Amino acid sequence: MRVLFALLLACSSAFAQTDFPSRPIRLVVTVPPGGAADFIARLIGGKLSESLGQAVVVENKAGASGTIAADAVAKAPADGYTVLQNSITTHGIGPHLFQTLPYDPVKDFSPVSGLALLPLIMALNAQVPAKTIPDIVALAKKQPTNFASSGSGGAPHMAGELFKSVTGAPIVHVPYKGSGPAVADVVGGRVQIMFDAAPSLIAHVRSGKLRVLAAASSERNRLLPDVPTFAELGYPQVNVSLWYGLLAPAATPPPVIEKLNRTLAQILDAKDVTDRLHAQGAEPMLGTPEAFAAFMRQEMAKWAPVVKTANVKAE
């Protein structure tokens, strides 16, 4: 009887996996509605719904640098019906900001796929008398020079800390509650420098209020093709992008992971999706679950010494 029960259970599980999905999927996002992460989640969620024939419900679960959302998904049933849009915050910088987490950022998740990269740029108030990276370093050594960010511990903040560690520029971090007020103070000249994604800054660049010195990406920024990368200027270590991916709870059946990954690859390769991502300054991030897992390991290793040197703690 036990053998028969085990066989029936195995058959039932296999059927459930091949029949996936047979009900709506919950896509948990670590930020409030609005902004790049929410845009990407709703774009990809809508396309997943069309491709899979089931509703994909985006649930914004903001707070604690993404740990609230990540914890909820880590503890969800491992069946593919609850997934997390993770990011550089939850699986790059974040694990080093907290002394303890209620979950293991590696062991408690099954990688599905990367979704998108949103490269950062370095912009200055146009009145700052610096035209090159060495100019900024020299200026900061002569007089107080600050850089703004959308909040302590986020990618824009840590990009500034990485820049400091690579160049030796003694720039001082000024955190804000969100990108909007930070950009406003850089435009107004109250703070000199800011690292952020191009869409947040480009209108002020085009108006002449901000000047972009470099793109913190491996290739030139799609929205600012005339701006050199840090690598071109001799600082290849300064390579920072906001990035977003998809994780499922650990032990999610491989056929479910494979189906989600295969479907996402088709979505991210579609012209209408790439066009909408490119319009936001983002690049699609295709790849296998194994490639995404390797990428996250590299990101966590990259940010560990930067967070330690800057002595950044979770707010």
- Quickly give the structural class: alpha/beta
Low-pLDDT windows of residues: 1-16
User: Helical region count?
Assistant: 11
Strand content: 15-25%
Report the oligomer. single chain
Largest sheet: 10 strands, mixed
Distance between the termini: 55 Å
Order of helices and strands: HEHEHEHEHEHEHEHEEHHEH
Principal-axes geometry comes out as: globular
| Number of DSSP E strands | 10
The share of residues in helices is 40-55%
Mean pLDDT level: 93
- Radius of gyration over alpha carbons? 21 Å
Short description:
With 315 residues, the chain is α/β, with parallel strands linked by helices.
Q: Describe it for me?
A:
With 315 residues, this protein is of the alpha/beta class. Helix content is 43%, strand content 20%. Strands 1, 2, 3, 4, 5, 6, 7, 8, 9 and 10 form a 10-stranded mixed beta sheet that branches. Strand 1, helix 2 (35-52) and strand 2 form a beta-alpha-beta unit. Helix 2 (35-52) packs across helix 9 and helix 6 packs across helix 11. The radius of gyration is 21 Å and the shape is globular.
List the helices and strands and how they pair.
Elements: H1 2-18, E1 25-29, H2 35-52, E2 56-60, H3 67-74, E3 82-87, H4 88-93, E4 109-125, H5 133-142, E5 146-149, H6 155-167, E6 172-175, H7 179-187, E7 193-197, H8 198-206, E8 210-216, E9 241-249, H9 254-268, H10 271-279, E10 283-284, H11 289-310
Parallel strand pairs: 1-2, 1-3, 5-6, 5-7
Antiparallel strand pairs: 3-9, 4-7, 4-8, 4-9, 4-10
Helix pairs in contact: 2-9, 6-11
Task: Give the key terms.
315 residues, alpha/beta
